[in-house]
Amino acid sequence: MSTPKSVPDHLPVEDTLIDAEIDDAGVQSQRPALHRPWLLLLGLVLVGINLRPALSSLSPVLHDVAASRGLSGLMAGLLTTLPVACLGLFGPLAPRLARLWGSEKTIALILVTLALGILLRTQFGQFGLFAGSALAGASIGVIGVLLPGIVKRDFPAQVSLMTGVYTMALCLGAALAAGLTVPAMRWMDDSWQGALAIWASPALLALLVWWPQTRIRQASHHGQWLVRGLLRDPLAWQVTLFMGLQSSMAYIVFGWLPSILIDRGETALHAGLLLSISIMVQVVSSLLVPALGQRCRDQRPPIAATVALVISGLLGMLFAPTDSLLFWAVLLGLGQGGLFSMALSLLALRSPDPHVAAHLSGMAQGVGYALASLGPLSVGLIRDQTHSLWPLGLLFTLISAATFAMGMLAGRKRLVQVESRPL
């Protein structure tokens, strides 16, 4: 069981209980005093906007990148897989970095490495392309693990709403990168390097807005908490597998959907636009679905509905007439926005306190993204070997079925059973 339920005298500043409340599970929530919460909210939004452009900006120009750098189909598949794999490999480092420097300072530092990674992949040939992609993916993985814990800590009564806002920011960043990269390349005399490099700018802007948080929280991390037992908890694994499986479908879309549509006869500009529209409509469902889920007895109904929308949209993009692709892109986006938002919500809703939420986030996004990386790699291998859409349809169906099964388990209203206490 999670402990403690009373406040030890030696708690650090961050963990002092202010306006303590008892939630449905009988566990005290922790509400630290916020300085200028609007600035924190703006910072969260701008940081969130930067967690997808490094991924979604590449797929519309993947053909140009592959031709310029001499990439085979397999190497192109590895390129789309590498940053996702790094999300999983480096995400578990986030709690350790937060203990050293604090969550806020860690995010500030990692925004710098994210910008460097985006720039590096445009230089130094194949080495820079792969090294920069890895650095960008690792940076996104660390930040993505830390943000849900901050939401749980600073907005405990608005977890679903704030998760929706955070997801909306992710969708906005991904949509802008997917839709504007090809026009930017055309404007820059067909320079894909310049079109990809511009996405370092939002990371630097987010750093400027986020920087005040590093001063506000500078005394907030002198204490350490022990969270033990996640790897033995079945619910923690169900949340982790659900996160990984739905992420696999998301990164398949980010990495391969424009290429698939181009193979179906669409132009690069139109394929990127369809991806951008699909991601943009995720803003709607990412806000609405968690709110609807909070009104249900548990989160299984919205999970089932969003999985159904995702598989319908994916199969429509593969096999429906091309003049109906806009409809299927919207359907896919509505499903994926709600599904991802629910996965993020579960990290907080299944955790009894912010410390458990941070560790569950590290587990779910670490192991989950490592699993998710197999999706884009599998698509690359299938496309390289078969040049057919039917194996892709089968792959999408199998992943969706597994996502539904894990969602039905993770969506039940309960908390992970772990030990959580200050050291």
TrEMBL record:
NCBIfam families: CynX
GO CC, alphabetical: membrane
Transmembrane parts of this sequence: 38-55, 75-94, 106-124, 130-151, 163-185, 191-211, 235-257, 269-291, 303-320, 326-349, 356-377, 389-411
Keyword Transmembrane helix attached: yes
Pfam families (alphabetical): MFS_1
Keywords: Membrane, Transmembrane, Transmembrane helix
Domain of life: Bacteria
Any one GO molecular-function label of the UniProt entry: transmembrane transporter activity
UniProt name for this protein: MFS transporter
